[in-house]
Structure formats: structure tokens, C-alpha cells
Amino acid sequence: MQVKKFEAKTMKEALELVKVHMGPEAIILSAKDTHRGFGLMGEKSVEVTAAVSEETLRKKKIAESKLRDDLRTRFQQIPATKQREFINKVFEERREDRRELVMAGGGGARGGMETYTAARVSPESRAATSGLRYADIPEEDAVPRAVAQDRVRRAAERARLASQVLQEPPAPKGRRSARASAAAAAAAAAAASTGIATPKVSKAQPTAPSAPAPAPVASVPNSDIEKLESQVRELKTLVERFQQMPQVPMTMHPGAEQGLPFELSPVYQRLTQQGISVPIVSTMLKKAQKEIEFEALKRPALVEAWIVRQLLTSVEVVTNPTKGRYHVFMGSTGQGKTTSLFKFASHLVLKEKKTIAIISLDTIKVGAADQLKIYAQILNVPFAIVRTPEEWHVAQSRLKHVQHILVDLPGFNLRSMEEADWLKAMLPPAEFDRQIHYVQSALARDEEALDLAGRYQMLGFHDVIFTRCDESSRHGILLNFQEHFKKPLHSFGMGSRIPEDYEFATKERVIDFIFKLSRVTKKEAAT
Question: Quick check: 261 pLDDT over 70?
Fold first, then answer.
């Protein structure tokens, strides 16, 4: 027998599939609605389980093989009764052909062959092959399951009657209560139905001399019954107390999935809430678990102090932020490239008294070059626009007296290779002592930021500038970015003021972002 499952949008379509693949003799075993959804759109579906014998399925395939392709398609679309008539007709013709072939033979073996062929196609054989309804065949474990359920039901009935007997006051000696008699009768009936022999107590009756007299059943002492009653009452009290207790679902502590103990859960939760990726946090805390004593792990302050010491060692920052003559600012639109260039230029002119020039490559965005030109006039520094790679040599010869040249690139998402090739061709030549700074907003999601920076990585940026750090409450992206690209931190944009809200990156500032130390200091100062 072959059993198959078919899934379709409607019951009609499912039955059509059963008819096409298994034939008109298929038996539907079960049909149910599925809630997981069907297809890409998540629509509900119907699941039908059907069965058919190997002989019936073979007959269907033989009958279909005698048809042309167009007739076979039409045969699958006709009603099941018509298909059954066609299949029976095909096999009746085959039986007649076989019978004529056998009768046409000669010799003594003809009678034996004729008998054998007739036996094969007799009505009894056909009934044994195709007359059985597969929907009536029980599952393999259906009978044992029914027996087990019946036994459980009878055991529960016996337990109920026994509890009623225990709750009834004890009867006088030599007598049995009505409930005890009913319980004994029920137990005897249940034992008889399950085939278990139980001893019987009856009045003396005349028996044959050869049959021994049954032994009397010893009565149960009242002390044993009282003990049993006491145990039942204790069990009932325990069950009632357990039902009254609030059922609190068991949940795992934060970090348990990474193999961290409960003592490290507060630190794990605080670091992950700051946006630091789970692999980085779990690696640090597993190392802390090995190096810190167990009693110290119970104090989150000591664990955080150990984390601070590790960050002071692992975080990388640029040691000389003004190194290089050409400083190129690149990144996608809206990350703060132009603002970072303004702040860096103001720092060089106002605080370090350096001579600078500003060059724009952004001829795509409307007003981008004009904005840079106005700011260059405010700082009283040279400004130029480079439109082709050959113009870099002209700018190099005319700006020999300038110490630093700041270059603003247009914002691209690098969705195509043409944009990447254009940016690579328009960058200042490598021999010009250039430093490329990638500008990234701290408000961006980690997945988007890492994906976009991965496309810019082919241009070879040297470090990263994070902007809008004052607006973000989660600064884990600083560590995630550095762990992914192994690039040092150059500087941070802390606000809109120029150049006050701009500072070069330090390890202490990174720790301040992660543990919010400056906020605590401000609260203490206010109080």
C-alpha cells in the first residue's frame, strides 16, 4: 500500500491531485487545515492523506500508458467513476486476450494453464485485491492505544471508588459498607474484563471431593486502613497547596545561551543594551571568568572595572590625527562628511594655526560646492573644485605653500561599480601623502553601517570618524565597527557647534560612551 500526503489551497484542488496521482480507487485517510501557510504569500492550505494499493496503482498506470498524451490529459480530468470504468474495461479486455491465448495453445499443459489463468482473474481474487477500503484499516498502534486507554479509564474508576471507601466512616466488624461492596464489585468486573484473576469469597457450597476448598481471605486491620486514609489526606493537602501556588515560568538568565554564569548576567545585559554585539561581549566575559575569582564575579563593579582595563588595551585610536597633507572625507549621503570637514578645518586654523585649503569633488549635489566656498571665505583659506584626475597636479603646484588640503567627496552608496570606479579615479594620487577618513553616523544601525562600509573598503580608507555621538544613546557601534574592519578611531562629532563640538578620539572617551561616566558626573555635580 502506498500512502501520500497532498497539500493545496482548497479541498477541491487537493482531491484533484489525489485523483491524478493515485487514481479513482484512492481512499482518503485524513484531511485537515494547515496553519503554517501555503506558498510565498502565506495563504492557508488543506492537507489530505490518501492511500491506494500497489495493484490498483499499477492498473492505473497501465491504463494511462495505452492513451496518447492529449487523451491522457483528458482522462485525468474526467470524473472518478468514468476513470474506474475505463480501467476495468482495459483489464477486462486484457483478461479476454489472455484467455484466448491460453485456449489457443495445445498439449496436456493447456488445461493447467487455463485453470491458472482463470484463478488469477476470478472474482474472489479481484475482491481480495481492490475491494478493501483503506480508510477502515486502523493504524499500527491503534489497537494497543485503545486497550491502554481502556485500562487507564478502569484504573481511574477503581481509584475513585477506593477514595470513596476511605472517606466513608469504618463499618462495624464483620460487615462491609455499601460503598466497599460497590468498589469490590467494580474491581472484580474490571479485573474480569482485563483478564486478571481475582480471589472470590463466597458462602460454603457443596463441592466435589477432589476440588479443594478455597482459602479464606484475611481481613484488613483497621490500623492499616487508618494509615492509608492519613496518606490520602496528606496527598490531597499537598495537591491543593500546589494548585494555590502561583506558577512562574522558568526562564534562562541573560547570557546563559552563550555559556555565561548567572553572576555575569548584569554586566552582560548592560553591555548588550549599549549595542555591543553578542560575540564581542561573550568573548570578553568568558575571558573575565577565567581571570577573575569566583567571589569577585558576583560584584558587577569589579567585572566592569576589568572590562574597562581590557578596552583600554584593545581599543585603537589614531595617535597623530593631523598626519598627512591631504585629508579626504568619504562616506554615503547624510553621514556628516561636510560638517566633519568644517570642524576639522576650523580646528587646524583656529587651534593649531595651520595653513589649509579646501577642495571639492562634489559637482553632483546642488549647492555642495557653493557651501564649501562660503565656509572657505569665512576661514579666509583657498578653495578649488577638481573635475578631472589631471587637475590634481595643477592643484598640487599652485598650493605648495599650504600645509594641509581638505578634500570633500560626493556621497555615494556604491550600488554600482561605475560609482566605485569614478571615486577611485578621482582620489588624490597615493604619492600625495593622503589620509582617507571614512565618516559614519553613530545613529545608523549596525547591519546597514557595516554593509555600506564594506563597499567603501575597496577604496582603502585609513580610519573612521563617528558623527552625532551626542544624539545616540547606544555607542556599541564604535566597538563593532572596529572589530569588523580593524580600523582605528580618528575623531568624534559631539554637536553642531564649530569647532567646539569636535574632538579627536581617545580610549577614555570610548569608555565614557559605553558606561555613561560623564552623565553620572553631571548628576553628582548637580546634586
Answer: yes
